[in-house]
User: What shape does this take?
Amino acid sequence: MTQHESKHMQAGVVGWPIGHSLSPRLHGYWLREHGIDGDYQAYAVKPENLKDFIRSLPAQGICGVNLTVPHKELVFPFLNYIDDLARKIGAVNFVRVEDDKLYGGNTDGYGFLTNLQENAPTWRPTAGPVAIIGAGGAARAAVVSLLESGVPEVRLYNRTKSRAEKLGQIYAEYYDPARLTVGDWVDLSSGLSDITLLVNTTTLGMKGQPPLEIDLSRLPNTAVVYDIVYNPLETDLLRAARERGNVIVDGLGMLLYQAAPAFEAWFGQKVKVDPAVRHYVLKGL
Ligand code: ATR
Assistant: This one.
């Protein structure tokens, strides 16, 4: 019997408010599928209590947690080790406890890229420029994973241009500044003519939010259109792109693929992202 199988394992997701997180449903599915004596629950923790909660993980016998809004950035000072990718992305989305020490990492970039590769297998990072809409935490995971995978130029478009410029300054430390450019929000549609991939990282198009309205007429029909929103699965942006013949990628796979390496780190079990788990998680929406 391995160490991982020897005792009840507790993990969870920490946020404020924690609301309708799909993560307990997802991890619960994998725990049952593999017959692991473990549990994954949602922890509602106010920002002012985050330090005490995170520091008490070893004493509580919790083997790890995911972090969600607003804790992904706030958790940095409370950890013993943070990996390079999480530092570059500026966010920690999971913590692992080992020998009473707290390790922070980020699997959002991995989830973003793996979902893209699975659903648009002929897209090549080196083929040309990419456009990203947004400049929040999700945009940073996309920017880092795309630049790391060899995209020649990422063009950022954000309603508040100064936030996109701030990202440009941050990443000038890591990448050739010519590879991360900032466009004007009003020029978004006209700037799409040489784009191989268009990504929405904003909340626009999510249930209860206004749609993201972009004129796609200049976008090559060979370009991939990727929306990280997963509720609804097909946003207005994706429907418009599909109807004009573009390959589309929805955001559910990103949620599933970011979860898999964290599950493996905590519970010592590899998991598959397959249609069955996708279908099960979708029913929880
Ligand atoms: P996250 O960390 O999940 O990416 P965030 O930091 O709140 O979330 O970022 C949300 C993104 O959606 C931002 O890029 C935001 O643009 P601003 O920086 O201008 O706020 C974008 N966004 C939200 N509502 C928007 C709207 N109505 N029009 C255009 N962009 C919007």
User: Anything to note?
Assistant: The first helix runs from residue 23 to 33. The two ends are 37 Å apart (CA to CA). The pocket of 2'-monophosphoadenosine-5'-diphosphate is lined by residues 134-139, 158-160, 163, 201-204, 210 (CB under 6 Å).
